[in-house]
Amino acid sequence: MSTPVLHSAETGSFDIHWVRHQFPSLDLALRGHICTFLDGPAGTQVPRQVMDAIQGYLLGANANTYGAFVTSRRTNEVILSARAAMADFFNCAPEEVVFGQNMTTITFALSRAIARELQPGDEIVVTTLDHDGNVAPWRALEEKGIVIRQVGIREADCTLDLDDLQSKITAKTRLVAVGYASNMVGTINPVAEITRLAHDAGALMFIDAVHYAPHGPIDVRALDCDFLVCSPYKFFGPHMGTLYGKHERLLQFKPYKVRPATDALPDRWETGTQVQELIAGIGAAVDYLAELGRRHDATATDRRSALLSAYRVTRQHETSLLARLLDGLLTIPKLRFFGISDPKRFHERCSTVSIRIGDHHPTEIAKFLGDRGIFAWDGNYYALNLTERLGVEKSGGLLRVGLVHYNTAEEVDRLLSALREFAGK
Question: Which of 13, 150, 300, 311 has the least CB density, counted as fewest CB within 10 Å?
Answer without folding.
Answer: 13
